[in-house]
Please model this.
Amino acid sequence: MSRKKKLIVYGIMAVAVLALIAVAVFAVVKFNSMRGTCGEDVTWVYDGNGTLTISGRGAMKDYRYDDTPPYYRYSSEITNVVIEDGVTHIGSMAFKDFTYLKDVDIPDSVTSIGREAFAACTSLNSVTIPYSVTHMGYGAFQSCDSLEKVKILANITKIETATFEWCSSLRSAILPDSLTSIGEDAFSRCGSLTEVTIPENVKVIGKGAFNYCTSLNRITFLGDAPIIDETDYGSNWIFYEVTANAYYPPYNDTWDGYKAGSLGGDINWIAAPN
Model:
């Protein structure tokens, strides 16, 4: 082989080697960009195929509008979030605006869900909050407008302000017996919600809690008449634009005052055994 041909061959081989090195470097960089930390002892991994896995021990970091999670750059790809056992806190705004997210697995190790953690996850269809959860922050599932079913097994005492506000597809909400308070606008504008049962231990309902739930036709109270929290603007409306039958325990004089009012809606009060 002539010297000229050898140089050409060597040149081609060198280009090929450099190309392989570039591909390898790109693969390493891409691999490293798809994993990281999201808490002191909590990590995240994105598999590149729609699934984000959160694992480790302890709490996820709480995020803000000016401090988004590092995996947010994949938010238009992520359809499934798996939170592994050991994680105790789902961070504030951890998955806010993940509009393609359809499924989330919340393990029994989680005890709290931060404010707006899943807000505006517009493809999320259903969610189960496990028994271990004792606190959900403001607007945790606000504006999840494909959310149809919520099952709250959690040992929580309060549904915070705006937790499920604007969940316009929500048809079923199962509330826990441990509940003592329902916050302001908690289910406001859930226009597909047809019925709700208020657990026996609920003592306080915040203003606007069920306002604009225009499909709501049956409300069942299992305990005493709750106090309506009207702290800010003095309105005791909790059923504005609602037309429904409301059932309450008979022979319970705490309901005497309620029967004369509508709480903002067109409510037909009926004493009936539960």
About this structure: The first strand starts at residue 35 and ends at 39. Residues 14-32 have pLDDT under 50 and may be disordered. The helical segments are 3-33. DSSP finds one helix and 20 strands in the chain.
